[in-house]
Amino acid sequence: MSINEINLARDLVCTARQRYTIYWAMLGYLLIACILLVFTASRATYKIQQGVDFNRQAQVLQKRFTSRYANQPGMEAYAGLLKENLQKKAAQADAINAALPVTMYSTLPLLNLLDDPAQSGRMNKLSFEQRAKESGKPELTFSVMIPEVAGGAGAEVPASLQRWRNDPILAREFATITPTTTERGSSDGEAFSILKYKAVFREY
Amino acid sequence: MSMTDKMKFKGEHAIGLDISQDRIVATHFIRTGQGLMLDQLAVREYASGIPDKDIAKHIRELWKSRRFSTHTVCSCIQSHAHIVRYFRYDNLTLAELPKALALEAEESLQLPPEDVVMDWCLNNPAGADENQTVEELSGVLVAVPREQVLQHINLLRAGGVYPVNIEVGCSALTNLCQFMAPSAVQSSVCLINLSERSADVVMLANGESYPRTLFSVKDRWENNMEYLLENIKDALLYYHLRVKKTSVKKILLTGRMPDLPALVDQLAKATALPVEVPDLCSDPRLAPAIRREPAELLKNCNLVTGLGLGLRKPQNEY
Known about the structure:
The complex is a heterodimer of chains A (204) and B (318).
Chain A (H helix, E strand, L loop, with lengths): L15 H53 L6 H25 L8 H7 L2 H4 L1 E8 L9 E9 L8 H11 L1 H6 E14 L2 E12 L3
Antiparallel strand pairs in A: 1-2, 2-4, 3-4
Chain B lengths: L2 H6 L6 E5 L3 E10 L2 E11 L6 H15 L5 E5 L6 E10 L4 H13 L6 E7 L11 E12 H13 L3 E6 L1 H12 L1 H5 L2 E6 L3 E8 L2 E8 L9 H18 L7 E6 L4 H12 L3 E2 L10 H6 L2 H4 L5 H7 L8
Parallel strand pairs in B: 1-4, 4-8, 9-12, 12-13
Antiparallel strand pairs in B: 1-2, 2-3, 5-7, 6-7, 9-10, 10-11
Helix pairs in contact in B: 2-4, 5-11, 7-8
């Protein structure tokens, strides 16, 4: 060692080796801190972007609402009102649902077929019993008037009955359609037969 | 320190920072294709005698204004209390040397060992086994009161810089001489660097050095010329008698002195040796950065210590 390597602070400051270690440790720390900073900044930017988008959407919705529902005090109040109405309607629907029978019977398919006098005759009477005396089940009783022609009405009855029984729509609604009585009558000099039927609804 | 470690720490560089009575001189050297080159020189004046906290403020402002690339500094102690002493022991082992030097430092400074900071260098360090008696052990001992070193380190830290080397004016002077005139170091030369009230004197021959620091306590050198000349003559004589090696061939005189040409004449007469005043601006590695500084700031400014400190290689410390 020569005179120009004298160092009075040799034991009072960090050595070159320590400084070297500290330097790289600090560099590593800085690198990690930078990575964390970038990560945090990107997350924050993403969230801010989301917030800005959300705000923009909210403004668009607010504008659309204001233009469409000018008389309403505000979106929140309007939403409350709608909710209240919806609750009322739901309560009404519940009440109707509770009042209605479990099974709904429809006579429309039958009426639709009986609407053709040429095929089925003219509808005379139609009655419905929710609970029939004999069977205790809902029953439909109806009669049709058929003008008497040469050969009598007896030939017509099975044909229309067979057609009803084969009809898939009627088969879905009614379990059985059976003839009960036949009467004869006249009106305005014209003789006709009155055929009575009993239809039992299909129960599901 | 191994060669690998030296290479590993080579990237570290430091600013030379000389804080004298009324000036701060900071120098930064960079390594170029042609070797080391002075990259930045900064001089800042302040009122003499201001407290350390104000000097620290000046250091901070200097660093802020000059935007130095590092805060690591090599500085030197400017204290009247320090000793720089040539030593020579006969028949002593290297293991015994630190104790002998510690005793010498305690005696010189009249302080307990825990209050003394010292360092030394050997003129002929090669070879010897630590426990083997060496016929002649010679070198330079530097010792300073610990309090002053700590005060200086605290001043630098308060100034926002980190000291890695604290040395003395003589070592900085040797650094600069080895940089500017490496051939002169091999011949026998006496270097003198004058500050306002102190003078670093170093005799260099064959890579060995004999340093001494002179102080003018009462007055400036220009008013105490006789004392300066006497002491330089004494140093030369003592070197000649004690070291018993080649006699000094010439004197290189640097530093601040209002009437430097007169001193050159007187010194030449008193010592019967040629006296040269090296021009720092004649060295192309120093001149560009020196010329960039305002001339009035450099007037009566001693750049030698600052430049010598800037040439210090911090990676040599371990």
